[in-house]
Amino acid sequence: MPSASTAPIESSPAWLDALRARLTPANVREHATDGRVYALLAAISVAIAALTLLYPSTPTYDPWAWIVWGREITQFDLTTTGGPSWKPLTVMFTTAFAPFGDAAPDLWLIVGRAGAVMSIILVFRLAWRLTGGSLPAKTIAGVIAAMALIISSSFVRNMTLGNSEGLLVAFTLWGIERHMDGKYRQAFVLGFLAALLRPEVWPFLGLYGLWLLLIDRDRRTLWLVIVCGVLIPVLWLLPEYWGSGNFWRAADRAQRPNPNSPAFADFPFWEVIKRTWPLMLTPVKAAAAFALAIAVWQWIRARRQGAVIVIALLALAWIAEIALMTQAGFSGNPRYIILGTTLIAVVGGVGFGWAVQIASDVVARFGGERHGKALMLGTGVAACVVLLGATYHWAGPKFRTFGDLDRALRYQAELRIDLRKSLAKVGGGKHFAACGPVATGMYQVPMVAWHIDRHTMDVRMDPDPAGGAAVASRSTGRAPWAPRGPFPAGYRLLVPQRSTHLYSTCPPKPGA
């Protein structure tokens, strides 16, 4: 007899059984992808991410705060009032990395960048898989989708600096694949992990959980949905209450957008849509519309290509949700859109692939049985070359911006390197902070807090006239120095570095 934990739920009404039958996909693959394939892809992604540390690297503002919070959790002294919004999954990683000391920031960069690499692999794989057909058709679909992701939404910049959207995209695409494989519980767990990165995932996961309960009567599924449903508010809200005394601190912080946020536009919803439109290449948007039209036609005729329709609708729903939240006063940061533009890239890649397949099929009809396959392959390759060449008109300028991006990323890494070297020259971060309150520029607060072993709230933006220390730097190569001089009486320059100057009313540590 089955155990209580695995026994099916008691019989349900006939109408519910009928609904369950209608909701269960009829085209589940007979042979699901071996889970070891995804383990291998994840291992490859981590290895590539680790190799990227050979490039000058640093986290950006939000990741530095997560890294500080991870250390504070291990010290049972969490303070979240000075920093970005809380993200449970990121801080789980940084808490695990905190015992490794100075290596913790780089360990987080490996995780964040591994998510980005996995995203690129999965975007290629999903577009390939949805396209089907000939090898040239699947190849062009995957290449276009991956290229569209790499050059859209400042993806490379955000992921290189350790933001979490790469992980969000990776878990979502991975979940879609496992759903297509018929591994619905695994898909739900991957959606749960995505929900620990962005609250916008919650309604989608909730609907999927309800669908899963309707089609799967196993008690394990019921408990999985219940446990994950409980853990989401627990992991989002309780640590915030510990760190700030306010369950809703993350939501309050998200409603204090930066000055350039679309939240300040006359009509924020429409402003988000306008800013999203140019993030995607025109040919990719056109190909996505083409693929969606074909998928709808196929669905009406033969109940096929439903996955392409659902992915397109998910993309539009995600963008609309971000726009609605911006209308409600949230920040509407462009990187929040990355998941939506990624899904459009997948559908656009499928559109390119189907165009190649159609051209190949048309030409193959004139070749007969003897030459048809050769003509199909040759036409497919030729169509790939033509489409890639035509797309370069739009993609070329995007790729050429990578030179400027390289300089910007190297400068951000200089800020971290110069701060570390400067503090070493005065006796270390703890000695530097022992002089009194430490001030720095707004965008450097969490990085300075990490290096001087203080809470982010302990780092101020104006030097204390009564005495203390200051880390003056420029957040970009063209930004002004912050804090601005002249400094209060008693502050003197201790260390001038390329991008960072240390000031203090106390002398350096003897022998430093």
Automatic annotation (TrEMBL):
Domain of life: Bacteria
UniProt keyword list: Membrane, Transmembrane, Transmembrane helix
Start and end residues of each stretch annotated as Disordered: 464-483
Transmembrane segments: 37-55, 107-128, 140-156, 187-214, 221-238, 277-300, 307-330, 336-355, 375-395
Protein name, per record: Glycosyltransferase RgtA/B/C/D-like domain-containing protein
Source organism of this protein record: Conexibacter woesei (strain DSM 14684 / CCUG 47730 / CIP 108061 / JCM 11494 / NBRC 100937 / ID131577)
